Amino acid sequence: xxxxxxxxxxxxxxxxxxxxxxxxxxxxxxxxxxxxxxxxxxxxxxxxxxxxxxxxxxxxxxxxxxxxxxxxxxxxxxxxxxxxxxxxxxxxxxxxxxxxxxxxxxxxxxxxxxxxxxxxxxxxxxxxxxxxxxxxxxxxxxxxxxxxxxx
Length: 151
Ligand SMILES: [Fe+2]
Prior knowledge:
Elements lengths: L3 H14 L12 H29 L3 H28 L1 H10 L6 H11 L26 H5 L3
Helix pairs in contact: 2-3, 3-4
Bound molecules: fe (ii) ion (FE2).
Fe (ii) ion binds next to helix 2 and helix 3.
């Protein structure tokens, strides 16, 4: 079936207007749509890391490999910036990141210790604008300074 140029544009726009949504966008609060945008971006950044890594590993041309690895590392920076944006807005992500990241303990033991302590299920209170752990919105964003003081 040929849709022509206008048809292609219509299909593209229709897809972009609800890319990845599982509910009608008009039913979703702006905070959830921004959260979705960030998650989609994070997925794309990690995909780019994977693709650049594969291309760098596959090429036998050293200067191209260097460029691809440079670009891969730029994508890591983009991914971490987006992940940090999400962490600042979602108390459950914040709480869980603090449990699992930046520790040398075996990863599965961290989970076992958390399970034994009975932690991890209680929603964290939402200081500032952190998205509450129960999935509801608090709006705004958590100031960097208030989180840094806890690190
Ligand atoms: Fe990127």
